[in-house]
Amino acid sequence: MNWEMLSAIGQVVAAVGVIISLIYLAAQIREQNKERRRAGINLLTAQWSDLVKTGQESREFAALFLRGMRSFQALDAPDKLSFSAFFTRYTRNCEGMFIYYRDGALEKALWDEVERTMTDYFAYPGVREWWETRKHWLTDEFRAVVEAIIAHNPKQKLYAAYNLDT
Fold first, then answer.
1. pLDDT tens across 46-104, in order?
2. Angle at 7 (CA atoms; ends 2, 10), nearest 5 degrees
3. Torsions phi, psi of 154, nearest 5?
């Protein structure tokens, strides 16, 4: 074996080492991306849970919420403020989920759940009335999603099983 042969073997070994390192690096990046997605989804889920607690913990807010679903315009100023604060938080949360979905960090099945929930809420006239007052606060892309939902004129069925939709 001469020096040229040893040099060629050394280069092959080095190339194999680089390939193995690149495969390892790719696997680490993939895992890091998965963890980042999970952390983001966990944050949005926690925000959603906090939002839902609003209606669970306050009978007064629950009653206001149901009135607001029927007509935002019929609410007095303090009730409009509370209803608006809830739906501002809600739509911001949904917009965050949309951005995760758009960027590939949220699976389609999970985004479909969010979109079905939005469809249920935006079926009500009070939510649509509120939307007209605050839609300019959201991104053009997300506004288009909500506007498409509204354009389909979904049936009011969110609380149908509880006989609240009358």
1. 777 776 776 667 889 889 999 999 999 999 999 999 999 999 999 998 998 899 889 88
2. 130
3. -65, 155
Residue type, 142: F
What three-state secondary structure class fits 23? helix
pTM: 0.72
Q: Alpha-carbon distance 35 to 30, whole Å?
A: 9
* Residues 13-50 pLDDT 10s: 777 777 877 777 777 777 777 777 677 677 667 777 77
CA 5/CA 8 separation, integer angstroms: 5
Torsion over CA: 58, 62, 65, 67 (sign):
negative
For the chain, how many residues are written? Answer: 166
